[in-house]
Design brief:
The complex is a heterodimer of chains A (112) and B (111). Chain A is mainly β and 112 residues long. Chain A contains no helices and eleven strands. Helix content of chain A is 0%, strand content 57%. The radius of gyration of chain B is 13 Å and the shape is globular. Chain B has 111 residues and is an all-beta fold. Classes of the chains: A mainly beta (112), B mainly beta (111).
Chain lengths: 112, 111
């Protein structure tokens, strides 16, 4: 595997379900990110991790819970989501400094 | 006022045309400027990265930054149908990790 990988690529879940999104980067980077991309809106930064420590939480509702066990892996745990949470969730990584970010293919999430 | 403004398009051009994509921004502290290309159902791919004002060229792509006007551009020469995608501008003041994105411009290059 190369670059940034994400699983699953597609996810349909009910409002009462619990699921997790997984991201893995094979670039040797120190920082990892979760973004939300909704139709016709700019990418919204959700969380930032540097060297496994969370350095940014962009006022994300608690029904989204990130986890970063090491610099290569990032998870987004989901529970009791709302239909408006349906979107493409993108993971990215960057070397220290963060201005060059590399994205994974995303998980297309549909909440029913 | 949004920090970064980008015309959503769609922009439709014939193959071989020169394409100009633009973003304006309001925060004069931005110093790092990027262009990403996003194909349908894929993640954004970093195309161009520039620091401060000036031009940067890479093959058929040229990125231009005019900090005095708070305006950045991406030019695509000899456009190809494979260039059909959404192009996102992004910028940062260099504060650790924070990128601000435009909403993206959809480009269609028809044969």
């Amino acid at each position: 595997e190369t670059g940034v990988t994400q699983t699953p690529r597609h996810l349909v879940m009910g409002m009462t379900n619990k699921k997790s999104l997984k991201c893995e980067q094979h670039l040797g980077h120190n920082a990892m990110y979760w973004y939300k991309q909704s139709a016709k809106k700019p990418l919204e930064l959700m969380f930032v991790y540097n060297f496994k420590e969370q350095t940014e939480n962009n006022s994300v509702p608690s029904r989204f819970s990130p986890e970063c066990p090491n610099s290569s892996h990032l998870f987004l745990h989901l529970h009791t989501l709302q239909p408006e949470d349906s979107a493409l969730y993108l993971c990215a990584s960057s070397p220290g400094g963060g201005t060059e970010q590399y994205f994974g293919p995303g998980t297309r999430l549909t909440v029913t | 006022q949004k920090e970064v403004e980008q015309d959503p398009g769609p922009l439709s051009v014939p193959e071989g045309a020169i394409v100009s994509l633009n973003c304006t921004y309001s925060n004069s502290a931005f110093q790092y400027f990027m262009w990403y290309r996003q194909y349908s159902r894929k993640g954004p791919e970093l195309l161009m990265y520039t620091y401060s004002s000036g031009n940067k060229e890479d093959g058929r792509f040229t990125a231009q930054v005019d900090k005095s006007s708070k305006y950045i551009s991406l030019f695509i020469r000899d456009s190809q149908p494979s260039d059909s995608a959404t192009y996102l501008c992004a910028m940062s003041h260099g504060g650790y990790n924070k990128l601000i994105f435009g909403a993206g411009t959809r480009l269609a290059v028809h044969p």
